[in-house]
Structure formats: structure tokens, C-alpha cells
Amino acid sequence: MEAVALYTFRATESDELSFNKGDMLRITNMEDDPNWYTAELHNRKGFVPKNYINLRPHAWFAGRISRGVAENRLRHRECGAFLVRESESAPGEFSMSVSYGDHVQHFKVLQDRCSQYYVWDEAFSSLNELVEFYHSNSIAKERTVFLRDPEQFRPHHAHALFDFNPHHPSQLHFVRGDVIELVDCSDSVRWRGRCHGRVGYFPPEYVQPIYQYQ
Questions:
Q1: Which of 115, 131, 162, 184 is the most exposed place for a label (fewest CB within 10 A)?
Q2: Does domain 154-210 have CATH number 2.30.30.40?
Q3: How confident is the model at residue 15, as a pLDDT?
Q4: Residue 186, Cβ neighbours under 10 Å: how many?
Q5: Where in this chain does the entry annotate a coiled-coil region (predicted)?
Q6: CA distance 98 to 207
Q7: For residue range 12-60, what is the model confidence (pLDDT) as tens digits?
Q8: CATH number of this structure's domain 61-136
């Protein structure tokens, strides 16, 4: 899970994590304290106040569920349907469950000494990047399985978290609080949306997707 910093925070205790407004944090634990999350930034770990950040949830992130629950959710789903869950055996670590069509396969998401995430050889700085990579590269070795986002999990609208003032005519202007219709959010760097009758591109970190489950 990732979160964008809404405000700058300066740690006052040794187990806290300092960050600046706009930083992208990796959230590793949200369960132990109602007011503080555990996060990583630039290979440093510590507690962060949850009211200083805004989570960027994804429909594929299931949180702390068991292997059995993951299998029940994915059973009989199309090949490539998946979810990422917090590891049952190792708090702060993650597992990925993927439907192969005829069964559900589980992968442990590992981290190297530089806090890069990996399943096979390729390593990534975030779970988002890892998931995006396996949308177009097979997660399986013995067959071809691309991760797929079910249509009902794709966000169709988003709330604007900040004002966005375009620097180019192709970009979309909006202000905090606007609801944006998402036209294309397949790119991790820029999304395309419609707001106030105009269509244009904008950075996804400026908005909060609205997920509607069918």
C-alpha cells in the first residue's frame, strides 16, 4: 500500500519517520495503532501519523486476509484475476494470490536489502510497480498468466485531493474536491479524465480513486 504525504512531518521520537509534503510512502502496517501507521521512505522505516497522509488504495489490495479467504475470492474467476494481501506468517510482508483458472496460485512477495520488492528476478521500488509489470509480463513460469484487473474493480471516478493547474493544453484543470470521470488510468505516470466538460491528462497522485464494487 502506498500513501502520499499531505503535510510535512518532523519526527520527535527515534521510532518515527520524517517526511515532506508530496513524498510517496510505503505503508507496511496499519493494524497495530489506530492513529499511527508503519511506513518506509528512502530505506528508512518508522511510525507516521495517519492524519498526515492519504492512502492510495487499490482494489487488488485485500489487507490482512487468510490464504483460504483469498482462494475463496478468486475461485472460478478468470485466469489472471489476483489480489495482494498481508502475509499471515510475517507481519509487514506481502503475498500475491493469482487465479490460474483451474486453481489459485500463491506467491510470496520478497524484499531485498535495498527494500525492493520482487517475486522472480525483477525488483521494484513499490508494490504498484510490481503489479503493473506483471500486467504485461507473465507472473507464471510454466504457462502465460498476465495479471488482470476485473472490470468491476476499476475506478470510474476520482476525488481531487489538490488543485491542479495545467502546464500544457493537453492537461486537465481541476480544484480540490472536484469529482473527475476517469477515461484512462492504465498509465502509472499520467491519467486521462473529464471534469467540467473538458478532457485532459493529470498526475494520478493528485486524486483519490472511487471504487465501486458490483
A1: 184
A2: yes
A3: 94
A4: 10
A5: none
A6: 28
A7: 999 999 999 988 888 877 767 778 999 988 889 899 998 999 877 677 8
A8: 3.30.505.10
Query: Which residue type is seen at 131?
Result: V
d(CA 104, CA 48): 35
Please name the helix (run of DSSP H) or strand (run of DSSP E) that holds residue 129, with its range, or none.
helix 127-136
Radius of gyration of the CA atoms of the chain, in A: 18
3, 50 Cβ separation under 8 angstroms: no
Q: Is 168 helix (H, G, I), strand (E, B) or coil?
A: coil
Domain positions in the chain are 2-56, 61-136, 154-210
Cα 203 from chain centre: 15
Phi and psi torsions of 64, nearest 5°: -90, 85
Position 213 confidence tier, pLDDT thresholds 50, 70, 90: very low
Homologous superfamily of 2-56 in CATH?
SH3 Domains (2.30.30.40)
% of the chain residues with pLDDT over 90: 42
Domains 2-56 and 154-210 share a fold: yes
Sheet holding 53-56, edge to edge: 44-49, 36-41, 24-29, 2-5, 53-56
Residue 148: pLDDT band by 50, 70, 90 thresholds? confident
| Bridge pairing between strands 82-86 and 61-63 | parallel
Give CA separation, 94 vs 27, 53, 97, 137, 158, in Å. Answer: 11, 21, 10, 20, 27
